[in-house]
Amino acid sequence: APAAFTEADFYQRHFNPQEYMKEYYTLSDGQGQPNTFLMQNLRSLFKMFSLDGVRGDTLIDVGCGPTIYQLLSACERFQEIVALDYTEQNRRELERWLKGEAGAFDWRPVVQYVCELEGDREKWAEKEEKLRRKVKQVLKCDVTKANPTDPVSLPPADCIVSTLCLEGACKDLATFRSALRNISALVKPGGHLVMITVLRETYYAFNQQVFSCLRLEKNEVEEAVEGAGFEVKFTDTQLCPAGDARTDCEAVLSLVARKRASTS
Ligand code: SAH
């Protein structure tokens, strides 16, 4: 793992969105090996966005990065989506796909895979269109700030989704806990948090850059989620394939929680 924790500014300076997606978001690698990490996460997102009550008008994606896979099942349940990320090049890369610009990443195989999970592989173009239509804004955010979108104030949403962000953004457990409280303010009481987090990972790498990861245990994540005013409704843990030189990730935790009615 890097000697000093790589925080947001390191992402701004060194995170290459195209290389990140090439490394982690193709369905099969150069040798034709399936990307089980991605496929597990897509199945898990499909399952979580099929749970009772996980629906509504508005969804906020926290730490969206340059990717859209985390919104593919979500866009069937919510009408308007706002995507947030710290890094300018990631927001720009996402916009590039949303606008269908030349050079945008090809998500089609991933979209087709999700459509197949949802029952009809042939609906991929429709889903792409739907997602492009529903993402209304892509804004800067910093999860370590009390109002992550400062100076913008977003109305609280019906749901927030966050995949593989907080463990990379938070250098210690105290920061992780406070980041969860910060993003909790973005969701209405009774609304949901849908999260994918890696467990016991200390680094991940691509394109000869190494990024830090806060080493988390499942109970630490659950306690931080509860401490941010949520009730955990669903968890699922999937093991990471061993022997991956790019990361020391041991497992992936998928979690759905419901925000309690505010009493204090
Ligand atoms: N959600 C995407 C991207 C994860 S990569 C996926 O599932 O693949 C981690 C992301 O966290 C990067 O896009 C990075 O810019 C963002 N990030 C890092 N520090 C952050 C911070 N303090 N606030 C908000 N986002 C941050």
Automatic annotation (TrEMBL):
GO terms for cellular component: cytosol. Pfam families: NNMT_PNMT_TEMT. PROSITE patterns: SAM_MT_NNMT_PNMT_TEMT. SUPFAM superfamilies: S-adenosyl-L-methionine-dependent methyltransferases (SSF53335). One of its GO terms (biological process) is methylation. S-adenosyl-L-methionine binds at Y20, Y25, Y69, D85, N90, D142, V143. One of its GO terms (molecular function) is S-adenosylmethionine-dependent methyltransferase activity. Gene3D superfamilies: Vaccinia Virus protein VP39. Keywords: Methyltransferase, S-adenosyl-L-methionine, Transferase. PANTHER family: NICOTINAMIDE N-METHYLTRANSFERASE (PTHR10867:SF32), NNMT/PNMT/TEMT FAMILY MEMBER (PTHR10867). Belongs to the class I-like SAM-binding methyltransferase superfamily. NNMT/PNMT/TEMT family. This is NNMT methyltransferase. It comes from Nyctibius bracteatus. The gene is Nnmt.
